[in-house]
Design brief:
This protein is 51% helix and 11% strand. The chain has 3 domains: 2-96, Phosphorylase Kinase, domain 1; 103-272, Transferase(Phosphotransferase), domain 1 (Orthogonal Bundle), CATH 1.10.510; 313-528, no CATH class. 34% of the residues are buried. It has helices at residues 2-8, 50-53, 57-71, 103-107, 114-133, 184-187, 196-210, 220-229, 242-251, 262-272, 314-346, 348-352, 360-389, 397-423, 427-430, 434-440, 447-469, 475-495, 503-507, 515-528, and strands spanning 9-12, 15-25, 29-36, 42-49, 81-86, 90-96, 136-137, 146-149, 152-155, 162-163. Strands 1-2-3-4-6-5 form a 6-stranded antiparallel beta sheet. A two-stranded antiparallel sheet has the order 7-10. The protein has a two-stranded antiparallel ribbon with strand order 8-9. A hairpin with a 3-residue loop joins β5 (81-86) and β6. Residues 17-275 form the Protein kinase domain.
């Protein structure tokens, strides 16, 4: 057994990786999770088979370009180059490790709220600003080449990138990249400029909002024909603001001379960055005070003559805002719980290895997802009743719409988790649990059932955390346990009247030398509630 373990471990200078920890695989090599021996820093190590590229000068040049480009870039939204090693058979590129995979993990199984998409694109715009400054065009932008590390998105994979001396004017003619995200000029083998990356960003934005690409085809030829003949459509089934439609219309302009400039793209998302929307995968906004109704383009109802208006007293108005702020704090906590649920489902195998055969963590995933979904529905009902009581529904229609969308996403996550467990053959065993028959099967949970499930979730989080902390050493496991405990702690604090909760500090996890000690301290805090 020890010999097998040693055979799977490879060492490169001050770095090592285990071939069992495969992160991804491409046409020319594989990417493994590794570490730096002197600091225990986690890294990604791309292993490229030399025989696959040595016979092709184009591929050799592409690899050299990738290394040249990555060396000169130092930006939080661009994957950082660390080192390179050559052996007789392989080339190894060491880069920054991104714990949460790529953008496909964020997109998988759910439509993403526009506010969250915009926050992701604020980060992408910041990264591309650095590329533009360095006169670099990516040319192969797609969800698989946008990484996610603890809510920070990073542009990666510069294998097809090109340094363009005259960034604004250079015309390129080579056909590289992934067809679905290619600008029409590249598909038609016409000259194109650096605006091809803007088109790719537009396709990704559309796909995140609507869950599908704006144009598809059975092959490259039919895709090209559909792009050129079919207009850009905005499906009515998903709401999209004028900002989102405006960006897509300008980014997906088929005639390149009419497509938006980079300066316009940067300006759009720099202004959007200051709107303070709730985020799941970036630094969460800690402010939850809603002292003004959210603006709308036109009133939904015509105001009554002044003599007929019901004048609310200041005390009544204050009471309304106080209750609304309380509901909005609950909403932020439920959104945070939804984020934690997503993290949990993405790390099932990481936690399951520390269990025996009880499947307690898998059941926790189901219970927490259903609890979150039903909590959203209860909150939505309470909020609508509040607006109806104070006749304020029209003023807060945008707030209601966003709450409904968030509730729908939580419901979809629960259904997707059920389908996943069914697909991998675990659902039949989970059905044997008393918790499953009592809380998972059937319709929505009542208030008393929600209280019972909340208690079970807390007990399971404590039990699983204690068990895992005895032997775990991985930073991503520690971070997940931290999120799970915070999910229970913040819920308990709010129910006990504590409104002084900054979700931005909770979300911004900083690794320390004694993470286990901190988590054990937090575990004791959870016991006290």
């Amino acid at each position: 057994m020890q010999q097998q373990l040693e055979q799977s471990v490879r060492r490169l200078g001050d770095y090592q990786f285990d071939t069992k920890y495969l992160l991804g695989e491409g046409a020319f090599g594989k990417v493994y999770r590794g570490s730096k021996l002197t600091t225990n820093q986690e890294v990604a190590i791309k292993k490229i088979d030399s025989s696959m590229i040595n016979k092709d000068q184009y591929l050799i040049d592409a690899l050299n370009f990738e290394i040249q480009i990555m060396k000169q870039l130092d930006h939080p939204n661009i994957v950082k180059f660390i080192d390179k090693f050559n052996t007789d058979r392989s080339i190894y590129i060491v880069t920054e490790y991104c714990a949460d995979g790529d953008l496909r993990n964020i997109m998988k199984g759910r439509r993403i709220p526009e506010s969250e998409v915009n926050q992701i694109f604020c980060q992408l715009a910041s990264g591309f600003k650095e590329l533009v400054k360095a006169n670099i065009i990516h040319r192969d932008l797609k969800p698989a080449n946008i990484m996610n590390h603890r809510g920070v998105v990073k542009i990666a994979d510069f294998g097809f990138a090109k340094i363009v001396d005259n960034f604004s004017g250079d015309l390129l003619r080579t056909c590289v990249g992934s067809p679905l995200y290619m600008a029409p000029q590249i598909l038609k083998r016409e000259k194109y400029t650096t605006k091809s990356d803007i088109w790719s960003l537009g396709v990704i934005y559309y796909e995140m909002i609507y869950g599908m690409a704006p144009w598809t085809g059975v092959d490259e030829k039919s895709l090209t024909m559909n792009v050129m003949k079919q207009p850009l459509r905005f499906p009515a089934s998903t709401q999209l603001s004028d900002f989102g439609k405006g960006f897509l219309s300008r980014a997906l302009e088929k005639e390149e001379s009419k497509r938006m400039e980079w300066a316009e793209l940067f300006a759009m998302f720099e202004s959007e960055q200051n709107l303070g929307a709730i985020q799941f995968n970036a630094n969460m906004n800690g402010s939850y005070i809603l002292d003004q109704p959210q603006p709308q383009s036109q009133p939904l109802v015509q105001p009554q003559p002044l003599s007929q208006q019901i004048q609310q007293s200041d005390a009544s108005s204050q009471k309304f805002l106080c209750q609304l702020n309380n509901y909005n704090l609950q909403r932020m906590q439920i959104n945070f719980s939804h984020f934690v649920n997503v993290e949990m489902t993405q790390h099932i195998s990481s936690i399951a290895q520390y269990q025996k055969k009880e499947m307690h963590f898998e059941m926790l995933c189901l219970l927490s997802a259903k609890f979150t979904s039903n909590s959203f529905k209860l909150l939505q009902s309470n909020v609508l009743a509040l607006f109806e009581q104070y006749k304020r529904t029209a003023e807060y229609i945008r707030f209601i719409s966003q709450l409904q969308q968030e509730s729908q996403l939580a419901s979809e996550l629960f259904q997707n988790t059920m389908q996943y467990f069914d697909r991998i053959g675990l659902l039949s065993n989970l059905r044997l649990s008393a918790d499953f028959s009592q809380f998972i099967e059937g319709g929505d949970l009542g208030l008393n059932q929600l209280i019972s499930v909340e208690k079970i979730i807390k007990e399971r989080v404590i039990s699983i955390s204690k068990q895992v902390l005895q032997s775990a050493k991985e930073n991503d496991v520690f971070s997940l346990l931290d999120y799970m405990m915070e999910m229970c702690l913040t819920r308990s604090k709010i129910m006990n009247g504590n409104t002084n909760i900054d979700f931005s500090l909770i979300h911004e996890k900083k690794q320390t030398s004694d993470q286990q000690g901190q988590l054990n301290f937090k575990l004791n805090e959870l016991y006290s509630y």
